[in-house]
Amino acid sequence: MRPKRRLGQNFLVGAGYPERIVAAVSPGADEPIIEIGPGEGALTALLLARGARVTAIEIDDHLIPGLHRLFGNNPRFALVNGDALDIDFCRIFPQEGKVRVVANLPYYISTPLLQRLIAHRHCISEMTLMLQREVVDRIIADPGGRDYGYLTVLVSFYCEASRLFDVPPGAFRPVPKVTSSVVRLRPLANPAVAVRDEDLFLSLTRTLFAQRRKTIHNNLRAGAAALGLGTTADLPAVLSSAGAGIDGHRRAETLSLRDLASLAEAIHQRGQTDE
Ligand code: SAM
C-alpha cells in the first residue's frame, strides 16, 4: 500500500533505529504502553517482543487489517482505530495509574498532539517521541535564541525534556526531507515554576510570542484585553512590578520561565486588586 503523505506516513525500515528507540524505552514485562501511529508495526513488534502490553492508536483504516494480521493473536495487543487528537489517553489503561507513551509521530500534527499529551500528563509517566529535529530543537532551546518560544515554555513548564538521538532521513520509507530526533519527556510532579494561575501563565506566553520580532511591551499591548489587563493598563508599571523588573523593550525570547512566572504573577495580582 502506498504511504499517505497527508497522514505523515514515513515508516521506519530496517531494524537499527526501531531497536534503538525500543531499547531507550526498555519496557518491563506486562508494562502497559500506549503507541500512537503504529503504521506497519515497526515499533509495535519490538515493544510486544519485550513483553509489553501495547494499545496502539492508528487513524488509517487501510493499516488496520495488516496490524490485526501481525499482532491480532497476541493477547497483549489492542488496537484503537481512531484519531489520537480525540483520544482520552487516561481511559486506555484506566486501572494502571501512569503509563508510558511511545510514538514515531506524524509530523503534521506534532504540536497539537504534544499539547494533548501534556494535557493528559496526569496519567502519563513518560513519552518517548520521534519528532522533526527542528521541533526537538525548539523543545529543548535555552532562552535567548530563535528556537526558544511558546513550545519550549509549554513543554519545559510541565516536563523534563531530553534529546536522545537523531535519526537520518534514510531510516524511513518514503524518505522524508527532514532529519528526525527522538526526545524523552517526563511530566513533572509540579510545574517547573510556581504560578497561581497556569492558564494565565500560558496565555501570557502565547501573547508575548505572538509576534516574535516585536518587543514585550508591544505584544502585551496587543494582547492586553485577552489577559484581562484592559486597553488603558499601565504596562510599564505591570512590567516593573514583575519580580526583579522586566524591561518592556526586550523581546520575549529573552525571558526565562522564572521571568514569565513573575510577569504572570504581576498580572494576576493586578487582576485581584482591580476586582
Ligand atoms: N510507527 C510507525 C513507524 O515508526 O514506522 C509509523 C510512523 S508514521 C511517521 C505515523 C503514523 O501515524 C502513521 O501510521 C499514520 O497513519 C498515523 N497517524 C497519522 N495521523 C494520526 C492520528 N491523528 N491519530 C493516530 N494515528 C495517526
Structure overview:
The protein contains ten helices and nine strands. The protein is α/β, with parallel strands linked by helices. The strands form two sheets. Strands 4-3-2-5-6-9-7 form a seven-stranded mixed β-sheet, sandwiched between helices. The longest helix is centred in the last third of the chain and has 18 residues. It is elongated. The N and C termini lie far apart (61 Å). The model has no long low-confidence stretch (mean pLDDT 93). The structure holds S-adenosylmethionine. The site of S-adenosylmethionine (SAM) has 24 residues, from strand 1, helix 2 and strand 3.
List keywords for this structure.
275 residues, alpha/beta, Rossmann fold, Helicase, Ruva Protein, domain 3, 2 domains, seven-stranded mixed sheet, two-stranded antiparallel sheet, 9 strands, 35% helix, 19% strand, binds S-adenosylmethionine
Topology:
Elements: E1 11-12, H1 16-25, E2 32-36, H2 42-49, E3 53-58, H3 64-71, E4 77-81, E5 99-104, H4 110-119, E6 124-132, H5 133-139, H6 150-158, E7 159-167, E8 172-173, E9 180-187, H7 198-208, H8 216-223, H9 235-240, H10 257-274
Parallel strand pairs: 2-3, 2-5, 3-4, 5-6
Antiparallel strand pairs: 1-8, 6-9, 7-9
Helix pairs in contact: 1-2, 4-6, 7-10
The structure holds S-adenosylmethionine (SAM).
S-adenosylmethionine (SAM) is lined by residues 7-12, 36-40, 42-43, 57-60, 63, 83-85, 104, 106, 109.
What binds here, in terms of ligands, is: S-adenosylmethionine
Sum up the overall morphology in one term: elongated
Please give the domain count: 2
In CATH, the homologous superfamily of the largest domain goes by the name Vaccinia Virus protein VP39
Task: Output the structural class.
Answer: alpha/beta
Beta-strand fraction estimate: 15-25%
Stated plainly, the CATH topology of the largest domain is called: Rossmann fold
